[in-house]
Predict the 3D structure of the following.
Amino acid sequence: MTKQPIILCGYTSCGKTTVGRLLAKKLNIDFYDTDQMLTEQSQITIAEIFDRGGETLFRQLEYEIVNQVCRLGLSVVSTGGGMLASEDNSRLLSRHGIIIYIQRPFETCYQSMATQPERPLFKNHTKGELAASYEKRAGIYQKYASMTVKNEGSPEAAVKDICDFLL
């Protein structure tokens, strides 16, 4: 098996964190969530980052996290939904890890986002804008992913598919 980080990407609310935690437990390796890393290191919430400096500040801080992820070694990493939207982030992560795209239908992601209406992405965009963003990002995820796993059933099924690919 790889010695690089296993990097889960996908749209907001596609199940990256849930699948990632289960995968890390199954493989008995560390789990990291880039949004959590970002908030712990900046000591403010993502919403506060957006309030203070908008998406520009958020993406600058996120790039710092990408550089840390590249040095992690074998672990499971759940990325923020927009982390791979930056070509610089995508290239770095693909050079230093194995990227796995967690694919979930837009409607399912949207319904999950609706349960957390304070999230900046949900709060600041219409459903149509989010659907367009979903489609654009899907192409980026597919471009850099070594594997695409559908997360339409149980998260355990997605973990099994990933393990079958990795082992």
About this structure: The CA atoms of residues 79 and 105 lie 18 Å apart. The beta strands are 6-9, 31-33, 76-78, 98-103, 147-150.
